[in-house]
């Protein structure tokens, strides 16, 4: 059975860094579908500037013509903090027996042992880890509790940590929000439909409440 890909993020906003890595994870692991999971209350970071509805709308616009990418609203519908471990328990119940492959950027792997329930996450899923400019995997940076799990795939079950070489795009949502706030152009950092949405709604603009 092909693994189900899962990609959790704040997506404030979703950008080409996210989308390119999702495509490359799908190709590398021959996934048929990959769920994008916008989170409601991200536990590890400052709260998003865009509302849940706005982030959902942008994620939908980004993937509407991309085969295999599915917007999954389960974290937005669940009350309380959006813990990945709870999401994976829920997905595992919905897709019994299906291997789960949760993807992230290298920056996220380097702080992964601070995540709530990280050991349980690795009982439920394997991790596909993508390159991110400025974040390197070396023996000093990765927690020893994780390093023995490093492998190359294929996905044989939960508990594997599978770094893959992906196109490095130094794009971040933080940078996009700053540009939008300053009234700068966003073209080619995110899908044009998302750039148009941000511009039309005034989202992130210093002179407009979002
Ligand atoms: P922010 O700048 O607001 O922190 P972000 O651009 O890092 O946002 P998130 O929604 O927080 O985006 O990221 C979700 C996941 O995507 C994380 O695992 C992060 O590592 C990964 N990610 C985001 N941007 C990139 C990128 N350009 N290259 C590789 N991984 C990325």
UniProtKB/TrEMBL annotation:
Q: Which reaction does it catalyse?
A: nicotinate beta-D-ribonucleotide + ATP + H(+) = deamido-NAD(+) + diphosphate
Q: Which Pfam families match?
A: CTP_transf_like
Q: What class of enzyme is it?
A: transferase
Q: Which residues does the UniProt record annotate as the domain Cytidyltransferase-like? A: 6-179
SUPFAM superfamilies of this UniProt entry?
Nucleotidylyl transferase (SSF52374)
Alphabetical UniProt keywords: ATP-binding, NAD, Nucleotide-binding, Nucleotidyltransferase, Pyridine nucleotide biosynthesis, Transferase
Tell me one GO molecular function of this protein. Answer: nicotinate-nucleotide adenylyltransferase activity
EC number(s) per UniProt? Answer: 2.7.7.18
Q: In which pathway does it act?
A: Cofactor biosynthesis; NAD(+) biosynthesis; deamido-NAD(+) from nicotinate D-ribonucleotide: step 1/1
Q: What processes does the entry annotate via GO biological process terms?
A: NAD+ biosynthetic process
Q: What does this protein do?
A: Catalyzes the reversible adenylation of nicotinate mononucleotide (NaMN) to nicotinic acid adenine dinucleotide (NaAD).
Hey, which family's this protein in?
A: Belongs to the NadD family.
Q: Which HAMAP family match?
A: NaMN_adenylyltr
PANTHER family found in the cross-reference section: NICOTINATE-NUCLEOTIDE ADENYLYLTRANSFERASE-RELATED, PHOSPHOPANTETHEINE ADENYLYLTRANSFERASE
Q: This protein is called what?
A: Probable nicotinate-nucleotide adenylyltransferase
Q: Which source organism does the UniProt entry give?
A: Gallaecimonas pentaromativorans
Gene name linked to the record? nadD
